[in-house]
Design a protein that fits this description.
two-stranded parallel ribbon, alpha/beta, Helicase, Ruva Protein, domain 3, TIM Barrel, 338 residues, 2 domains, single chain, globular, eight-stranded parallel beta barrel
């Protein structure tokens, strides 16, 4: 049977959906269930990765050390994964701590045109004999050729696979096929795909990636993730099994894990709201949903206008400060008091 490697970032991307407030108790409960289901990789941490807890990005309820220790204690078979963005995560403090605490898989991420910043982190993690993937975020903002050039940089640094993220849920299957096909043909390492569901295409896009040669797919329990959520893991695995792919996951126990996520992790189930659609069309990071809504209300603005303006300015994750700047500019243009 054909095999697909599944990585589950419910405890990382899902943190965006609850303002990074997942507790150690919640992390433990989901890790136990995910491990029982045989999910190959369980990724944990602040929504923006280790080292990202801050006033600007949101303070996590559970610090990195506690999060990693809790996950490690409760993952007996599943590999423990983390998301690392250079600039938020340092090598000496954050990455070394994670390695010392027993992390297995390290994903080093950058904006899709800035792979250069990942070199030191990738090389350090590889020297520590960890599984290391390079991640290109907001990948819809680069052409297929630029993505290949950036991915080749990560490969040259030692990345053992390259994952592209549809961070704003902007892709259609044709977009995914074009990019994944280019990467598969141009790289010697496996290629993966991380989908968001703003336009309702997360499962379709994941399958398009698979059929174009991707070997690694991300999915979250009940779609738990930023904005409209991610590819819904239990649906994704069901579709893959029906297509004849092997994931190594016990389907019944995966359904149980998804029930745990819904009952114990989530405030509300992910859904495609009007703003989610606008975010996807505008090509803006899904994690901006809550701050855009809050700031729009503060300035008596239409949040849709903020999203489209953010899209025009090509604002990306980590540039949350620009939401306020855009709101102030729109207020001045409309004649409203700032």
């Amino acid at each position: 049977m054909k095999h697909v490697l599944i990585s589950d970032p419910s405890l990382r991307d899902g943190n965006h959906a609850v303002r990074h407030k997942l507790t150690a108790k919640q992390i433990a409960a989901y890790c136990i269930a995910a491990d029982a289901a045989g999910i190959p990789i369980v990724e944990v941490g602040h929504g923006n990765g280790i080292g990202a807890s801050s006033l600007q990005l949101g303070e996590a309820a559970c610090d990195d050390e506690t999060t990693l220790k809790t996950a490690r204690e409760n993952l007996k078979n599943s590999k423990l994964g983390i998301h690392v963005i250079p600039g938020f995560a340092t090598i000496k403090k954050d990455l070394k701590m994670a390695i010392d605490l027993g992390v297995d898989v390290i994903r080093v991420a950058s904006h899709c045109t800035e792979a250069d910043v990942t070199q030191s982190h990738i090389e350090f993690a590889r020297k520590e004999d960890k599984i290391v993937y390079g991640v290109l975020m907001m990948s819809h903002m680069a052409s297929k050729q630029v993505l290949l050039e950036e991915a080749r940089k990560m490969e040259s640094y030692g990345a053992q696979g390259i994952i592209i993220m549809d961070s704003s849920g902007n892709y259609l299957p044709s977009d995914v096929k074009e990019r994944i096909d280019t990467l598969v043909k141009g790289l010697t390492v496996p290629v993966g795909f991380h989908a968001h569901n703003n336009l309702g295409m997360a499962i379709a896009n994941s399958i398009a990636a698979l059929e174009s040669g991707a070997e690694i797919l991300d999915g979250c329990a009940r779609g738990f993730g930023a904005g409209a959520g991610n590819a819904q893991l239990e649906v994704l695995v069901a579709v893959l099994h029906r297509m004849g792919y092997e994931t190594g996951i016990n389907f019944y126990k995966l359904l149980d894990a998804s029930d745990v996520a819904e009952k114990q992790l989530m405030e509300v189930l992910p859904s495609i709201s009007s703003l989610s659609v606008v975010s996807g069309l505008a090509g803006v990071f899904s994690g901006f949903m809550k701050p855009v809504s809050r700031i729009a209300e503060k300035y008596n603005l239409d949040p849709r206008d903020i999203f489209f303006e953010l899209g025009k300015r090509k604002i990306v994750a980590g540039q949350e400060d620009f939401i306020m700047e855009v709101a102030k500019d729109l207020s001045l243009k409309s004649g409203k008091n700032v």
